[in-house]
Write a structure and sequence with these properties.
294 residues; 2 helices; mainly beta
Amino acid sequence: ITLPIQPFTPAYGREYFLRVGFRLVKDQSWARAGYEIAWEQMPVTVNAAIAGGNHITPDVNLAEDGKGITVEGPGFRVVFDKATGSISKLERDGVELLASGGGPQLHLWRAPHRIDDEWAYRDWEAYALTGLGRDPVRLVAEKREGGVRVESIVRLTGKRGFTVMHSAGYFITGDGTIFVDNAVSPSGPRIPLARIGVRMILDAKFDRFAYLGRGPMENYPDRKTGSDVGLYRSTVRQQVTPYAKPMENGNHEDVRWAAVYGTDRPALVAKANGGLLSVSALPWTDEQMTPVEY
């Protein structure tokens, strides 16, 4: 079979895929003509010209007092709370993005999946993964060329000797970009973890979600190849998979970038830096979903 693919000039920063599908040419007892019975999406390797030029950003201001660290630039403000070691305020053009206490924090469990997780959830509760104590160990900031670096180290303490050290290095530039490096070091009993990630809780007015990754339905590392990589948009509520028993849901694999936004609201964009992300955006937390039966 010869595919009618026309030559094209690849653009910098873009990915290209070839999707081949097979559809019924005649009506069948179980489906009508045109029904797609199989497909495959394949990445196309291209050589694109590299964009040139240096990206110069405005200066960044750094201030510190007994309660926290504030980093400001044109149109944005980031506040780190010394009591928690986390971001307590994230403002863009005067709009606060975070819900109260919603700054990025390490998250090691999920509202358990029936059958899959019930055996592990007993350990998550027994070792207090569902309610880890958080004690800041270190929070320091310094101005560097091109921005401000903030280092946060938090000790998370569970029960029966389970502890985790979470180190996060933030580099904030003058255009409001925040680069983050996370390191996680658990110690004590070995516990099966459903996830190792960072969770943020945003103001409920940020009710729209867009991402470049696998979709549109939820997908996970063990069942993702049936979901094409693409650009998808929906409301946050539409991300919910309506299982009879509320549980963690709506995950997307191989995400290049994801954005949460709202009407007359700025967008919070998370972008992979040299890798791919697993991302979900839901209207409820794991703590809210877990106790609900049906």
